[in-house]
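Support reply, case 0932

Customer input (verbatim):
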Amino acid sequence: MNRFILYRFRILKFKVLALTLMVSSCATYYQTNQSFNKEFESGNLSNALTTLQSNSSDSRGKKEFLFHVNNGLVLSMMGRYEESNEYFEKAFLFGEDYRINYLNEAASYLTNPMITTYKGEDHEHLMLLYYKALNFMKMGKTEEALVECRRVNIRLQQLSDRYSNENKYQRDAFIHTLMGVIYETDRDFNNAFIAYRNAYEIYENDYQRLFQISTPQQLRDDMLRTAWLSGLTEDLEHYKQEFNRMDYSYSETDGGELVFFWHNGLSPVKAEWGINFAVDRRDNWIYFTNRELGLSFPFSLSNYDEQERNGLSRLEFFRVALPRYVERPTYYTEASLNWNNNTSQLHLLENVNKIAFKSLQQRMDLELSKALIRVALKKATEYQVKQDDRTLGSVLGMINAITEKADTRNWQTLPHSIYYTRIPLQVGQNKIKLNLQGPRGELHEHEFTYQVQQGQILFHTFSSLESGYPSYGY
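Our regenerated output:
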């Protein structure tokens, strides 16, 4: 009788565990942070920051990187640049010090990758340095911003070394443009021209092909201006001809300048999707196949004992969970600045949305392989347990199905797209209007006032958090 009660108690524990896992594993990362997301997306930044910092345990856990970059971004939007950079610096050092926890990696094959530490996407590590450098520029700390330029250079080189395939995202035109802006502010016109020229080459050779993004007109102007100011006569003549601007000449402004960045919309969120695989054994190999998608992955049984091979061989059909990005379409379609009866269009610099999709696509084979191994090992374990206790094996099967989950974490407060322009300002007070165009052509106007000194370069960022439709279902 006691043995029977003990047995039933053990079954009950498995069922309670299964129900707990069901509740915790069904939600995506976006859904588990719905309170913060709702406050942030509605522009209630103070409340969003309070909600974010109330989860201070995340600063030391598996979501450490996301905790720091989200704090950094919100504080930057609030104009608290020093505090913002403290968090971005922590996120940067996290990336520098990141080491794989092999115990957690091994455990993820028995549960899901959400139990590992999120290390951040390639473009996310570049974006945090963009925000950090821009914070310094807004505070007038050009030297500190130049330090971030050098860090960005190192990160770009690491990215280039990691991906040699020209069809992969390995160079970032936007970051090179930012470096040019910072060098130019420091009156290092030669390095500014080189950075702008590098950006131009990437737009022409990579971005046009990978993302359908053309070279911004503002960047062409920046190249011609810095070539002129550097005394690079041959380069100036070459690009005047290439840009069909043979009549170009530079005249210094009587006042200062404004570099205006527009952050439009919100970056994509990660959701989950599943692929069904059929299993076929041939000799000492099994093949996971999805004929609809044209996928076939071989899996060697050589490293497994007879019982494990039998478990894997009995697989016939199963589902694996994989991450996917869901776009949040922008509400505003374009923007311009109006000042002193002049108009300047804001030009697309970076489509963060498309780069996020490309980054995930580049490693999808790795994601698939890891997911297949994860499910195969779960099923083999389930088979072994069933040999001893069929009921416990069935419960384990239910737990395995519930815990099969993709990693849906990403930096979700980034903008969808980044635009910029550069305009001259008069000494003294300047009133500038930002016109945003909605989906039906309607205009939304915002007015700013700047106090400018002779030769001063000001930096301003405006964020439009509106998206095309509600996003709480992800």
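We compared this against your earlier run and they match. Two observations from our side: Confidence is low (pLDDT under 50) at residues 1-24. Residues 20 and 298 are 34 Å apart (CA to CA). Please reopen the case if you see a mismatch on your end.
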